[in-house]
Amino acid sequence: xxNQETAKIVIIEDDETIRDGYAYLINHTSVYKVVSxxxxxxxxxxxxxxDAPDVIILDIQLPGxxxxxxxxxxxxxxxxxxxxxxxxxxxxxxxxxxxxxxASGYFxxxxxxxxxxxxxxEVMQGGxxxxxxxxxxVIMSLQKNQDSPLTKRETQILELxxxxxxxxxxxxxxxxxxxxxKTHVKNIYxxxxxxxxxxxxxxxxxxxxx
Amino acid sequence: xxNQETAKIVIIEDDETIRDGYAYLINHTSVYKVVSxxxxxxxxxxxxxxDAPDVIILDIQLPGxxxxxxxxxxxxxxxxxxxxxxxxxxxxxxxxxxxxxxASGYFxxxxxxxxxxxxxxEVMQGGxxxxxxxxxxVIMSLQKNQDSPLTKRETQILELxxxxxxxxxxxxxxxxxxxxxKTHVKNIYxxxxxxxxxxxxxxxxxxxxx
DNA sequence: TAAAAAATACCCCTTTAAGGGTGATTTTTT
DNA sequence: AAAAAATCACCCTTAAAGGGGTATTTTTTA
Lengths: 210, 210
Known about the structure:
2 copies of one chain form a homodimer.
Chain A: E1 8-12, H1 16-29, E2 33-38, H2 41-44, H3 48-51, E3 55-59, H4 67-77, E4 82-87, H5 92-100, E5 105-108, H6 113-124, H7 132-142, H8 152-162, H9 167-174, H10 178-192, H11 197-206
Parallel strand pairs in A: 1-2, 1-3, 3-4, 4-5
Chain A binds a DNA duplex (30 and 30 nucleotides) through residues 151-154, 166-168, 176-180, 182-187, 189, 195-197.
Domain HTH luxR-type (chains A, B): 143-208
Organism (chains A, B): Pedobacter psychroterrae
GO molecular function (chains A, B): DNA binding
């Protein structure tokens, strides 16, 4: 594992006040060492491999290449480095994109430096820290609509359809006849006001029915 | 919104030591009030509506009805109540199931009472608290495999297939011919060693390629 | 306990999609 | 310049999708 005593941090953040503030606080109130700070990814990319950081604190709103676009590149340059995202915005899409692309943690900028230092510690220990507002959005993205127009069986069948299964596979899996599956599918289409698998999946996902 | 001063908590947990311990600490070191504690859901279900709790702390490993099974019932009985799950285990499936079924937060039992009190506060303010190890698992479930055998285009097409789109819809969306889509699909099948949409989706999801 | 909702199953029908084989060109990356 | 990725086209057969209608049994709820 890593040696926490010497863990190296790099901060990529365009706002000089925030950048220097975090750097100062990490250096003076924690065991971690900020080895470099950069105002943009485009400046950082040529030097960051030499820094060999254990953790990168990456702002999303950067001039030039955005933090989101920088993420996959950084993961390729430094596969073992943990990346904690920082942002002022917190749209569900942005958060999910960042996490899907390899971010280890995600914080909004109203997060105190103490929490960020705690997050560095957590990330070094294999955790996945995020601020409560971010966690809320992630949880919401996992939650299903409580008052679905679909019955349990219909929801179950629609989920199987969404996994690419055809009628006969669904029938086999649920120990019912193909014709029964067909009837359920027809009722699903009527309830969702669609007339194809693709549209049913689209509507169901938009309304978090599946 | 809720009045934080009088927020009512119910604890459902079979271990008496843990149950009383959390209750004592919440009552004596926070502004929240534990109005009832129960050793199982089966005992709680008849009385909990009268308790009208703002937050329920729900153990997963309960005698009789498990916390996972109790979750949808509780959501129906008390739709506006926040539920924080507690567990000793932390399998990805269990966590995702709990969150998908309406849990507001998720903690493992090595979590300090202070963190639980903080979690109650966060949940009352609309946050979605979870312990770092849980957050890690949630993040992992969102992350894609970095070294996929599929090309970008193939991944993109497989994602559209997984959304139930057929060849012609994919062709339209990507501004390419149906025949090209077909070729990509054939190459996907060869790379994943499958010969159907359903199997391709299954293998791809198992390996987090999509 | 009676009514309503959900789940089950079968018949008709037509159109469309899926999957496999083979070969080839162009574009992009390395 | 070579390799990888993306593009397109023709052959073929079988399987699936979607729309229509009807009807029974089981489960849930009022």
